[in-house]
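Weekly structure sync, notes
Attendees: PL (lead), two postdocs, one rotation student
Agenda item 3: pending single-chain targets
PL asked that the sequence for the first pending target be pasted directly into the notes so everyone works from the same version. It is reproduced below exactly as submitted, 499 residues in total.
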Amino acid sequence: MLSDKRTRRTDSYVSCPLAHSGPAYRDVCALTLLAFLLDFVNITNTSVGLDESVSIAYARLSITSLLSILTGGDANMSLYHVLLNLWVRMFGESELAVRSLSAVFGALAVSAIYLLGARLFGRTAGLVAGLLFALDAFIVHYADTARSYAMLVLLVVLSSYFLVVEIEQPSRRNRIAYVLASTLAVYAHYFAAYVLVVHVCTLMALRRRTALTREWLGVAATIVLLCTPEASFAFREGPVLISWIKQPTLNDVEATLVELAGGSRVLLFALIAGGCYATVSAVKERGYWRNGFVAAWLVVPIVLSFALSFVQPIFLSRYFIICVPALILFGTAAITSVRRPVAAGALIATFVWLSATQLLAFYTSDVGENWRDATRYVLAATRPGDAIVFYPRYARKPFEYYQRQGKSIAPTNLDGHALEERQRIWLVIRESDAVAHFPEIQQLQSQLSESYRRAAQRRFRNVVIEFYTRNTNTQDAPVKDRTPQAREGGARLPSLLFR
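Predicted structure, written out during the meeting:
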């Protein structure tokens, strides 16, 4: 469906690159500054979550230990974890410090999408695309998250930019830049490979047989060679780390698209409608490869992931952050196609208003897991000799992060040993895991009730704290005099508490 007629320099959208023009520098500076403000204004308002605590734990390791983990069992996001490790050494591990790396990448991604949008559809479309990207609540959320997603989206946009530049102005420098951006994107997250698939399809559709030049074959071979170590690590670890992802449904596809649009169905509809109008207009002009490129970038990763999920579920909304630039570019292409300035202005105002209102709603909403307050609550009420246990086992990571931040000495964190010798037990539950394994958590609570009574329960966002004290009829009895049932129940605790 792609055509190469727009590669001519008589292109109606872009007659020359903007990268070295004065207006482009001003646009980049303004958009980057805006993105920094929008990303940093909310950066510490939410608690560090479980996934973030894992990345922070990796960042605290020695380089040798980190590389051992990345090459031996958790290779995804390896580039980010190495950079975060260096970042934490310089700036510490406060919430602001660990998240600011993502915020920097998120702000740079705004400038990158402006340059790509200007290259594809003109300066006005690029400006609006950069503005909408900066206002997108989904993007801001992950720019405020200590994970690799903001860096990933920056790299896939840069990779796509260098592809477009190479198509229009082939040069060795552009190809080298494309190889570097594409390779780094794969090391940032495996899902970057979907965007590279779209690039290959675009090039083949645009150039057909002439795409198989020595230069492009060399580019493909270099990327494959450079990404081979990451692929081997991924193959070695297998699907164990994503085994918890559920089989997606068509409702999940719809929900994911809404999330990509910042949570607004109206904005999603407006962007898709605008993109379809721009594509129809481009078809009439017999030059529509740009529209086809961004449409494929939006659709192909979602369709392929949905199909592959019938073999191994891999469909998760945050993985599709790679598609947000495509959704925004697809919609803002309509600005160039609308000939009347008043109509174009109304369309821009609609896009910006919908994005801004959704971002404001995001700023005032409670999201994520509130480990910050949950940890403070437990540490403020514990006594020497208390025990803290976690369900599941890995729920201790965000707890221990806030324990370090508060410079508090927590009670003994037991791996299920000597529980019967404790008078007071704090059970820390990650609620989403408890819901997913409800029979297990019920059995766990039942076993605890054999020797303890639940004296208090406190709920935080996705975190439940339960406080148990020994039953009065058993607290003075020696361990050896307790019933076999009680001893058996105590022995079963570790397998449930520490999945």
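Discussion points:
- Strands lie at 387-391, 412-413, 424-430, 452-460, 463-470.
- The radius of gyration is 26 Å.
Action: rotation student to compare against the earlier draft before next sync.
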